[in-house]
Design goal:
Elements (H helix, E strand, L loop, with lengths): L1 E13 L3 E2 L2 E7 L6 H13 L3 E2 L5 E3 L1 H4 L2 E6 L21 H17 L4 E3 L7 E13 L1
Parallel strand pairs: 3-6, 6-7
Antiparallel strand pairs: 1-2, 1-3, 1-8, 4-5
Helix pairs in contact: 1-3
């Protein structure tokens, strides 16, 4: 699995939902990923200390701040551009495998107490966000 995690002051997906301050998480599921990987990545993301404390240092997580998460499926994160100019997506999991793992990632965030909104799995979407910092981390 691969996630691009962006600290945001707000984010929205159409179709989908919107959040205020928190994280916009673009999530790609790779061939060979499993439920354990989805749970581990959700836990890591929720505890990732990329929010500032009172001294301006990265010391607070999404769990600490009470922020929301917008999770958007994005198989293009698994693009292989090693050969030629057209990306290959052969490393991305097929939709029937990826969707349950995407849903498990979302479920784990919710079980941790995070308010989660999602895009529409497999749909063409527009995603709008205001990156706060900017802070963008690839996990």
């Amino acid at each position: 699995m691969r996630a691009v995690v962006q600290r945001v002051s707000r984010a929205a997906s159409t179709p989908g939902g919107s959040i205020g301050p928190g994280l916009c998480i673009l999530l790609g599921v790779a061939e060979g990923d499993d439920e354990a990987a989805a749970v581990r990545l959700a836990e890591k993301t929720a505890r990732l200390r990329i929010f500032e404390n009172d001294d301006g240092k990265f010391d607070r997580s999404l769990l600490d701040t009470g922020g929301g998460a917008l999770v958007v499926s994005q198989f293009t994160l698994l693009a292989d551009t090693a050969k030629g100019n057209r990306p290959s997506f052969s490393g991305a999991a097929r939709p029937e495998v990826a969707e349950p793992l995407y849903e498990r990632f979302v479920q784990e965030l919710r079980e941790l107490g995070i308010h989660v909104e999602t895009g529409a799995f497999g749909a063409r979407m527009t995603v709008e966000l205001v990156n706060d910092g900017p802070v963008t981390i690839v996990i």
